[in-house]
Amino acid sequence: MKSYISKVILGIFLLFTPFIFAQNLSQNQFKVKGNCDLCKERIETTAKKAGAKKASYSIDSQTLTLETEGNVSSADILKKVAEAGHDNELFKADETVYNALPACCHYERDQIVANEDHHIHSKKENEFYVKGNCESCKARIEKAAKDAGADSAEWSAEKQTVILNFNLEKTSADKILKKIAQVGHDNEKYKSSDSTYKNLPSCCLYDREIQFGEANPKVHSEESTSQDHHDHGASHTENNNEKAIEGVTVTGSKASTSLSKKEAGLIFNIDKKELLKAACCNLSESFETNATVDVSFSNAVTGTKQLKMLGLDQKYTSLTKELLPEIRGLASAYGLSFIPGRWIESIQLTKGGSTVTNGYESITGQINTELLKNSEKPETSLNLFADFNGRTEANITSVSKIDEKWSQTFLLHGNGTFGDTDMNKDGFLDRPKGTQLNAAYLLNFNDLEKSGFGSHFGINFIKDERTAGQVGFDKKIPQNQQSLYGVGIDISRFQVWNKTGYVFKGKPYQSLGWMNQYTFHQQDSFFGLRNYSGKQQTYYSNLIFESILGNTNHKYKAGVSFMYDGYDETYLAGNFKRNEIVPGAFAEYTLTGLKYTLVAGARVDFHNLAGTQFTPRLNFKYDITPQTILRLSAGRGFRTANVFAESQQYFASNRNIQILENGGNIYGLKPEIAWNYGASLQQEFKIFGRKSTVIADFFRTDFQNQVMVDLDQSPQQLTFYNLEGKSFANSFQTQWDFIPFRNFDVRLAYKYYDVQADYLSGRREVPFMAKHRGFVNVAYSTNKNNNGGFWSFDTTLNMVGKQRLPNTSTNPEQFQIPIYSNSYVVLNAQISRNFNKKIRAYLGGENLTSYYQKNAIVDVKNPFGNYFDGGMVYAPIMKANFYVGLDVTF
User: Fold this and answer.
1) DSSP-based three-state secondary structure for 651
2) Helix 74-83 with 2-15: angle, nearest 10 deg
3) Span 728-756, mean pLDDT?
């Protein structure tokens, strides 16, 4: 170890050889960790005692600027600074010295990764830190090194280092690194001038704030492919929304939930670490610790959950898996339960208009789910889960490499709900009983670095059966042969998909991608004496070409798409069949400047039933300062309403369905069309010596046409008709994320919604939408021990204001519900223990306040009567529920 340290010090000494012999002053800047003025005084004093002529420490930039002369070594100074308790880019402080510092001086150490020798990386003597992003950076850095006299130079994007071979009689590391800085690349010896850096192509604008030795988040290991292809090609967008071979290349973020400052759109990246903070049995439970998405509570009879975003129902948000259409059509009601939480690698959540390359259906935003398919080494995991009310679950996931180009993923999920849960003692199950079997296989080919090809194949099968209704109902006996009210839902679903991309040789900015998917979905169900069944077959294809205009500051995409939906539905005695055939074409242009990014796109779709539809969308980002970002967005979207599938939460009632046809070709109705406009401000600052972020956004959605779901005409009727008048949703949200002290994360949010529409009876607030919502999430974890073990604690508080409820004034008084609901608070919490890197156990509770909606079912004692209604749910229907779980990795 001592010889290794000696070699490093010798290497640094050689760097300064020309200056030593010339007896000139040498000024250097190094990354050093500190928090406060006390740290500043300690660092500067220690540096001067160690021989620095001058020492100046900046708390904001976390840098120490040194002036030395003679035989004084910067390495010796930094070693003394570490001995005083401050980690730096060469040495790490001893744990006992760090712990002995005053509390105000306890900086965040996790951002520096040191080896046993206390060095940031085990670099070779001829290896030096140089910042960059992509292949263009690599070519520029290596050329500059050779121009400065190097015999050879090899720069690694992953390591952010260059290995130099040179003759000391002809040149020096100092001269080479100085030349590299002159062409625009900061390194451990020299920093590039601001003007040179700013003149680099946009793809080469690396993050100058990242310290040397810390991973560049825009670069990934070769096993998961270089992030080069994220910025240059592989048919990816700047918004991290659409990438033609997204199944092959991956993006990631260090934080469990992050909002990149580089994205033009308001896009949140949710890592799988965030999903471990709650039970997260499926996608509907993946947003419990996220303030952007609202999750409605389960229907009292069918157990359905729905997401809401920007004050509007889930159907107006594009829900994709692997950037392919997923939860739509007949899957609308139960599709959120078809993606198990343990299968999810990451979620990208876009507020407002998303890219046109993803289709025309997005109105309020997009939620894309990426499945597990990337691992540095083979990994198999087992998850076991059970709650105290009869629900059990098991997940097996396995990711492995076949060879250097091929990898595969096996995903298996099974769950069962066996207990009769009736906490409010009304005789109805609070949630359905049943089972689900869900299996998927993913195959990935990655040869982007050599041949330029990458491909991703997936296949998925689901069998879901559930029974609900009155306690004691027997699904095996026909409903008309028993007096108890029952609900039976059987779903079979099959999917197969492929995504293939090609990156042109010598042109990393140019690529071609092609995505294809086939889906078969069948549902057979009954709600008391009412039956509903449906089949859907969908084929989707999307071809995208991406390149540049002159340079990478001007990017464009162009492509064609095709969507086929075949529906065959039966409700009561009525049969409804239709085929939707939608060829389309699109183009998108991205302009990147020094402080701004503009993404403008448009698409035209030729819908055989809805006519030709033009869909423009625009996203604009302007960096007022590096810490203050303004975003603007505007866009149009359209969709066809599936009135039966999307309204199944109201089927368990006495309501008769009435469709007031309006000359359209989908149930006699015209398509839904809406414009969405948004603005957001992102502000970063430091509080408690740590990074803090405040985001405020406002979005407005205006419907040009809408299929109204009217529950107010009569308590015995559910009416669908096209909008005549106005329908709009105003959404305001502000969110503050901060870290008051180490390992302690706080997220606070407030949301205001104003959602109104012109119904046949006049303008009303849309029901089941609270105007005011509050959100608090607090997470704390202990430091890891030598085995990688630690404790985690997570608590989420949701405050929901009053909601307008449907009009029931014509019912007998005992079967009427209030005009507005009560406000309420829901508390969820979880404690987990990682015993080591392979074993984790957790215990949690949901709705710990035990607030539940009394009389959730109208006329519960007479389910076959005129006033029975199980769809008037606005709050939890179950009291506190506890669960336990175990994760084991092999």
Assistant:
1) coil
2) 130
3) 96
Per-residue pLDDT band for 212 (boundaries 50, 70, 90) equals confident
Amino acid at residue number 155: W
**Do 806 and 688 share a structural domain?**
yes
Contact 495, 517 (CB under 8 A): yes
What would the DSSP string read from start to end of 393-446? EEEEEEEEESSSSEEEEEEEEEEEE-S---TT-SSB-SS-EEEEEEEEEEEEEE
- Answer with the residue of higher pLDDT: 880 or 4: 880
Task: Find the radius of gyration of the CA atoms of the chain.
Answer: 30
517 has pLDDT over 80:
yes
Nearest alpha carbon to residue 783 among 79, 43, 106: 106
Tell me: the pLDDT tens digits for 395-412? Answer: 999 999 998 899 999 999
Residues 819, 22: Cα–Cα separation, whole Å: 86
Q: Are 802 and 822 in contact (CB under 8 A)?
A: yes
Same domain, 142 and 68: no
- Residue 674 C-alpha from the chain's centroid: 25
* Domain around 38: 25-100
The answer, yes or no, to whether residue 43 has pLDDT greater than 70, is yes
Query: What pLDDT sits at residue 795?
Result: 96
Q: Is 646 helix (H, G, I), strand (E, B) or coil?
A: helix
What DSSP letter does each residue of 84-125 carry, written as one string? TT--BSS----HHHHHTS-GGG----TT----TTS-SS---T
Q: In terms of C-beta density within 10 A (0-12 exposed, 13-18 middle, 19 or more buried), how is residue 762 classed?
A: exposed
What lies within 8 Å, CB to CB, of 181 at 6+ separation is: 187, 189, 190, 191, 192
Both 339 and 434 in a single domain? Answer: yes
Nearest to 405 by CA among 354, 454, 336, 348: 454
Rounded CA-CA distance 125/228 in Å is 27
- pLDDT tens digits, one per residue of 648-693: 989 999 999 999 999 999 999 999 999 999 999 999 998 888 889 9
How would you list the strands of the sheet with 26-31, edge to edge? 26-31, 63-68, 54-58
Average pLDDT of the segment spanning 347-368: 93
DSSP state of 282: B
567 & 707 share domain: yes
The answer to whether 671 touches 607, Cβ cutoff 8 Å, is: yes
- Residue 273: its H or E element: helix 272-275
Paired sense of beta strands 727-741 and 690-705, if any: antiparallel
Under a CB-based contact definition with an 8 Å cutoff, are residues 512 and 476 in contact? no
Give dist(CA 550, CA 201) in Å, integer. Answer: 11
16 in a structural domain = no
Tokens 């004496």 label which residue?
529
Nearest to 598 by CA among 565, 551, 631: 631
Tell whether 554 and 647 lie within a shared domain.
yes
Backbone φ, ψ for residue 87 (5° rounding)? -60, 145
Residue 583 CB contacts under 8 Å (≥ 6 apart), including other chains:
560, 561, 562, 605, 606
